[in-house]
Write a structure and sequence with these properties.
The protein is an alpha+beta fold. It folds into 5 domains: 71 residues; 121 residues, Beta-Lactamase (2-Layer Sandwich), CATH 3.30.450; 110 residues, Beta-Lactamase, CATH 3.30.450; 156 residues, 2-Layer Sandwich (Alpha-Beta Plaits); 92 residues, PucR C-terminal helix-turn-helix domain (Arc Repressor Mutant, subunit A). The protein has 21 helices and 16 strands. Strands 3-2-1-6-5-4 form a 6-stranded antiparallel sheet, with helices on both faces. It has a 5-stranded antiparallel sheet with strand order 8-7-11-10-9, with helices on both faces. A 5-stranded mixed sheet has the order 13-14-12-15-16. Helix 1 packs parallel to helix 3, helix 4 runs antiparallel to helix 7 and helix 17 packs across helix 21. The chain is elongated. 37% of the residues are buried.
Length: 654
């Protein structure tokens, strides 16, 4: 018995020795078997077996503590690693690699919301994968463990992903899980505060049940990773903002340098102009700064100065481009043929010419601005050569005509004195012209009309939405046609232009304007838009529109030739016209009324056509002729009442 007792004590000591030495678990069972061979039985054997179980439990607990300690060390190392600045992509790679090592899993990845914020997720930073099916893999909204984890805000796991129906599956993700051979999957929320949350996943290629300690470790890693990911996102955004700010600073510095260069160029050009240079020197300076051939032309296209490689062919190209462009009024450079750019030379609203540069098919912003400066310098130079008062004179002309059109007129002597300073005599005959262009062409038309008025030594202004001109002359119709031709070369529909007058008194300008404005409104109402006309050319309509009804002028312009013929040759053409219209335009009935042969009436009607035109029988002309006949008859009756009685003169056939 003593021998068996010693054997059981020895077995207990061996078990304790194995526990102290962290021996393998199979060695513990070997000690129990050895005690049985030595005859240990009964209570002693049960004591040995109980000691084995306790030793194994202590060893398992020690191993668990060691594993937990190692896991905590790994977490600390991970936190220390993530404490250093990393990009978002590097941060995600650290999180997935440490998660896989922490649990000894086969694969780890992170799911994050897509940039479109449409409720879908995308896989990021896979670690341990062996296929490429995950490329651009997206999870539809509400599918996979990721959606379930974010919905519950708690860890979820499955021992066999493809056979688990407790969550919604996604076809592409299941295909990838199958291709990777994954079974057990653990997903925990990736805690974030600065952006939408994601989830951290670890997976094994075998069926596995995750312990509470493993879930807790991965959850802690996800919390640490979420904080680090927030900081990485903020860091990336800060770096991007700093990079963008640096680019803006560089662009601003470059723009400032360009602006200084442009300011220096503008100053140099103006110094040349103010120093009394001629156009040729200015154009040569422009060529040096623009690096391209330059041509300066006057308002009618005549070359003033040229510089650069302008051979005969180049000059022909410039001339052809200038002819095709016409008169440009847009202050921005316009591309013509063969890379030739054109910019008008304007002094206020006055067109002084154009600047042409052969700079290629495209202009940089600095070149375009330098070209504008060159055009302005040319405008100053040409203005100074014309006497230095072009812009100011144009303003005086506009203001003078504006004062002539107000209802409360200024003193006549003041207006005449102001006009004389501009070389205009308001006591001389002038006609008033009113033009109404399309709305889009109003500004350009006003500039063109101002140039026309200056050229004709007249006045121009804009009044009540219309362009008004006061031009020297006695024929308002001819003046209206001149202005119409001048403005019709602009883009868009031709303007409607009317004329009235002549006027020879400052106070009569307003009446002439009103008459021309009424004529313009009548032309538009009659469908005559886009044409020129005057009140004198509109027949009886012009008679009605006139401020002062001039019946004598209307009669003379309509049938004056017939009246003069009757008076000079003692014929009866007027009486024949009366009979012709009274009988409804029938020569036969007119002959019966006049008691003459029908051939006589026919000859008289032919003579009438020779005198007033072959179209006198058209309805509109016939109406005016009948009106003129009646007015002539009334005038004759009134004159006979005032004149002393006398013998009536005889008459004979034409």
């Amino acid at each position: 018995m003593s021998q068996k007792k010693d054997a059981s004590v020895a077995a207990v000591l061996d078990l304790l020795d194995l526990l102290a030495g962290e021996g393998p678990a199979n060695r513990f069972e070997a000690v129990v078997e050895e005690a049985r061979r030595q005859g240990v039985t009964g209570a002693d054997l049960r004591r040995v077996e109980q000691t084995k179980r306790l030793a194994l439990a202590i060893q398992a607990r020690l191993e668990r503590r060691q594993q937990w300690s190692a896991a905590l060390t790994t977490l600390v190392d991970t936190a220390s690693d993530l404490a250093s600045p990393h990009t978002v992509e590097d941060t995600l790679k650290i999180i997935t690699r440490r998660a896989r090592l922490l649990l000894g899993a086969d694969v780890a990845w992170v799911t994050l919301p897509t940039a479109e914020d449409d409720g879908e997720f995308r896989l990021h930073s896979l670690d341990g994968h062996v296929t490429m099916l995950n490329a651009r893999l997206r999870l539809p909204k509400g599918a996979g463990l990721a959606a379930a984890v974010l919905a519950h805000r708690a860890p979820l796991w499955t021992s066999d992903y493809l056979t688990d129906d407790s969550f919604r599956h996604a076809g592409e993700l299941d295909q990838w899980i199958s291709a990777e051979g994954l079974h057990a999957v653990l997903a925990v929320p990736l805690s974030r505060t600065a952006a939408a949350a994601g989830s951290l996943h670890v997976a094994d290629r075998s069926v596995r049940h995750f312990s509470a300690d493993e879930i807790a470790l991965v959850n802690m890693l996800a919390e640490i990773g979420g904080v680090a990911l927030d900081r990485a996102v903020y860091l990336d955004e800060t770096v991007a903002e700093m990079s963008a700010l640096r680019e803006r600073v560089l662009r601003a510095e470059a723009g400032q340098a360009d602006a200084r260069g442009l300011a220096a160029a503008q100053g140099a050009l103006l110094d040349l102009v103010l120093g009394g240079c001629d156009p040729q020197l200015l154009v040569e300076e422009c060529r040096l700064r623009l690096g391209a051939p330059v041509l300066l032309c006057g308002p009618r296209g005549a070359a003033i100065a040229a510089s650069g490689d302008l051979s005969g062919g180049a000059l022909e190209d410039f001339a052809r481009a200038a002819k095709d462009a016409g008169t440009l009024l847009d202050p921005s450079p316009a591309l013509l043929d063969d890379g030739i750019w054109c910019l008008p030379v304007l002094a206020g609203s006055h067109h002084l010419g154009a600047l042409y540069v052969q700079a290629g098919p495209a202009l940089s912003g600095d070149t375009a601005q330098l070209l504008r400066y060159a055009a302005r310098a040319a405008a100053v130079l040409l203005s100074l050569q014309e006497g230095g008062g072009t812009v100011l004179e144009g303003q005086f002309r506009d203001e003078l005509l504006g004062d002539l059109l107000i209802s409360a007129p200024r003193p006549r002597d003041v207006l005449e004195r102001r006009a004389r300073r501009l070389g205009i005599g308001l006591d001389q005959p002038h006609v008033v012209v009113v033009a109404r262009p399309d709305g889009d062409a109003q500004a350009h038309a006003a500039t063109r009309a101002s140039s026309c008025a200056r050229r004709l030594n007249g006045l121009q202004t804009t009044h009540e939405g219309d362009i008004v001109l006061l031009l020297p002359g006695t024929d308002p119709g001819a003046a209206a046609r001149t202005v119409h031709d001048e403005l019709s070369s602009l883009p868009g529909s031709p303007p409607t232009v009317s004329g009235a007058g002549p006027v020879s008194d400052p106070g009569a300008v307003l009446h002439g304007y009103r008459e021309a404005a009424r004529c313009l409104d009548a032309m538009i109402a009659l469908g005559a838009t886009g044409t020129p006309a005057s009140t004198h050319e509109m027949g009886f309509v012009g008679l009605l529109l006139s401020d002062q009804v001039d019946a004598e002028r209307f009669i003379q312009s309509t049938i004056g030739a017939v009246l003069d013929y009757d008076e000079q040759r003692l014929t009866e053409l007027v009486r024949t016209l009366d009979a012709y219209f009274d009988t409804g335009g029938s020569p036969t009935y007119a002959a019966e009324k006049l008691h003459v042969h029908p051939n006589t009436v026919a000859r008289r009607l032919e003579r009438i056509g020779d005198l007033i035109g072959p179209d006198w029988q058209r309805p509109e002309r016939a109406l005016e002729i009948q009106l003129a006949l009646r007015m002539s008859r009334i005038r004759r009756v009134l004159r006979e009442r005032k004149a002393p009685p006398g013998d009536a003169a005889g008459a004979q056939d034409a």
